[in-house]
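Severity: low
Component: inverse-folding endpoint
Summary: output formatting inconsistent between runs
Steps to reproduce: submit the following structure tokens with default settings.
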């Protein structure tokens, strides 16, 4: 079954009596994994409240072309670019006619002209209106332009007539939207990725951490999302923008990362442990700032829990992929790590070269399993991530 995981759906609700069914359409789209935003026309507002649509979509509802609060006061462009698909359901006779003529006199019609996303219409109107020559001609024009028409149903109508023109069922609309997107290698899968460095407090102002930027983990997150996975990120200290389509949990210390992972791991299909987790933390965290007193200060360290190894020991666990940052005896050390953690694969980073690995934009890695040791040649972290996800899907999904 196709899904709408990671897809951004803009639902246009126009002035048909069936607009009262639009909150259910939002629900069915969300059930298939979509994020939904809604534009409602003035006609649509006569039949459904903006509050219902806002509450169910969990997003602000848009209706005003002249909204000063929209980004650069150009909400139509922002929404047009945001959407992977625009679905007008219900599509009124008036809105359909406006689209035919390329009118742009309200937010919905302007967005349709401004978007390069797929567009679907679900007409809904009185059977005589639907059977009219003008409507048939208009739909033919829109079909020729590549707009997908969701056929209305046959039956009794709000006005008492019986005939063709009832809005298609909400579930059919959602499924037909999902069918427009070909399923991808991780469609329907759940992926958990840890990334960034952890911070281990010494006292209220000082800490132990590392140079991890989170770039490799975020590139992997992007590739998983592109491949259709529902992706959750557990993020430590990073210096990059966060992928907006992922669910995000922020943590500070290795202990917090361990708890956050364990809470979510059971439902995952794939776990990628990309964070630079501190192996040690100060055994005692001073409540007050440690003062200088001309004598050496000793900080006793204690070992943090091993997140990857702990997950690998669970009886019900996802496919587990770890990273190893090594500065010597690369392959031997990575193979030892593969064995000690009992994970499916280790991605080996050579951190002895300053232009690759931690905090740089490039990387060069080895993908190591019990049977294979494959080098992925130096490239941008985006390309390296693409190749890593390709291998993971080929081997395990
Ligand atoms: C009670 C009532 C019900 C209506 N139902 C429909 C309908 O089901 N389908 C339709 O195309 N128009 C229907 N209309 C007409 C539209 O609401 C009208 O053409 C309006 O201008 C549509 O505006 P919009 O396309 O900008 O939303 C209805 C009008 C009224 C007063």
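Observed output (run 2 of 3):
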């Amino acid at each position: 079954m196709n899904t709408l995981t990671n897809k951004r759906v803009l639902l246009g609700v126009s002035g048909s009596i069936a607009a009262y069914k639009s909150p259910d359409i939002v629900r069915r789209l969300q059930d298939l994994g979509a994020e939904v935003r809604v534009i409602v026309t003035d006609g649509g507002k006569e039949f459904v409240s903006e509050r219902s649509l806002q509450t169910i979509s969990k997003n602000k509802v848009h209706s005003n072309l002249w909204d000063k609060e929209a980004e650069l006061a150009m909400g139509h462009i922002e929404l047009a670019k945001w959407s992977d698909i625009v679905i007008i359901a219900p599509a009124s006779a008036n809105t359909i006619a406006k689209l035919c003529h390329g009118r742009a006199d309200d937010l919905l019609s302007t967005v349709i002209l401004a978007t390069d996303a797929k567009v679907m219409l679900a007409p809904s109107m009185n059977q005589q209106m639907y059977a009219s020559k003008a409507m048939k001609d208009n739909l033919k024009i829109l079909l020729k332009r590549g707009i997908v028409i969701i056929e209305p149903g046959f039956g009794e109508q709000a006005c008492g007539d019986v005939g063709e023109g009832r809005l298609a069922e909400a579930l059919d609309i959602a499924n037909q939207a999902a069918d427009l997107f070909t399923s991808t290698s991780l469609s329907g899968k759940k992926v958990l990725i840890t990334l960034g460095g952890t911070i281990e407090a010494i006292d209220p102002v000082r800490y132990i951490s590392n140079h991890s930027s989170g770039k490799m983990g975020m590139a992997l997150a992007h590739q998983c999302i592109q491949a259709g996975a529902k992706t959750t990120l557990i993020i430590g200290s990073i210096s990059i923008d966060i992928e907006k389509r992922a669910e995000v949990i922020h943590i500070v210390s290795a202990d917090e990362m361990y708890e956050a992972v364990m809470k979510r791991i059971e439902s995952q299909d794939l776990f990628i442990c990309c964070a630079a987790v501190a192996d040690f933390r100060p055994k005692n965290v001073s409540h007050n700032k440690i003062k200088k007193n001309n004598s050496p200060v000793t900080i006793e360290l204690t070992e943090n829990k091993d997140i990857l190894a702990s997950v690998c020991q669970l009886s019900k666990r996802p496919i587990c992929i770890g990273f190893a940052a090594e500065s010597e005896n690369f392959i031997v050390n990575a193979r030892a790590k593969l064995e000690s953690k009992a994970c499916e694969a280790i991605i080996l980073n050579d951190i002895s070269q300053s232009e690759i690995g931690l905090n740089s934009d490039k990387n060069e890695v080895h993908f190591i399993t019990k049977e294979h040791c494959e080098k992925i040649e130096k490239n941008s972290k985006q390309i390296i991530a693409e190749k890593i996800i390709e291998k993971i899907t080929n081997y395990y999904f």
